[in-house]
Design goal:
single chain; alpha/beta; 4 strands
Length: about 170
């Protein structure tokens, strides 16, 4: 997570997106890996009233990459996929940008009132470190578990109700 939410225009960032070859960098994201991560999202949502949503994107949209960084893109996707639109404002978006080697967590105001940005930042840094060591799926699975634990801490439920407000399926934006 970035300290400053404002993206700065970057010609270098734009070039990275233009030159990025998805086939070389997203081989790890097989159909089976996506299914396992979807299962992790489902298990991360057990025992609390929060919603967890995972988006993995190869690269920023070329037409936006000069002006929009990963944090702003994550916020845009938080809105686009209506992660903010949960009954108790407890949606949490985990956004991974493969090209930029960045991970962002955007939490709705219900959970942000309880969890410090430094907690989210530490979770992101830990996952990014694992990704850098070629343990992408494992790092994301562990991160999803941690997000679930945080949500259980503040929005615990004894009996898990039926009522998943957001899909658990991993969204992959090519």
């Amino acid at each position: 997570m970035a300290e400053n939410n404002a993206s700065h225009s970057s010609f270098a960032r734009w070039w990275r997106q233009v030159l990025f070859v998805p086939l070389l960098h997203s081989k790890w994201l097989t159909t089976e890996a996506r299914a396992r991560l979807t299962d992790k999202v489902t298990s991360a949502e057990r025992g609390h009233r929060g919603e967890v949503f995972l988006i993995i994107e190869n690269h920023l949209p070329i037409q936006e990459a000069y002006h929009v960084g990963c944090r702003d893109r994550a916020i845009d996707l938080f809105s686009e996929y209506r992660v903010w639109d949960t009954e108790e404002n407890t949606g949490v978006l985990v956004y991974v940008n493969i090209c930029e080697h960045q991970l962002e967590i955007v939490a709705d105001r219900g959970i942000s009132a309880h969890v410090s940005p430094t907690v989210w930042r530490a979770m992101c840094e830990k996952a990014v470190s694992g990704i850098a060591h070629k343990k992408t799926e494992e790092s994301l699975a562990e991160l999803l578990d941690e997000v679930g634990q945080v949500l259980r801490q503040y929005y615990h439920l004894e009996n898990n109700p039926e009522g998943n407000e957001l899909s658990d399926t991993v969204v992959f934006l090519k």
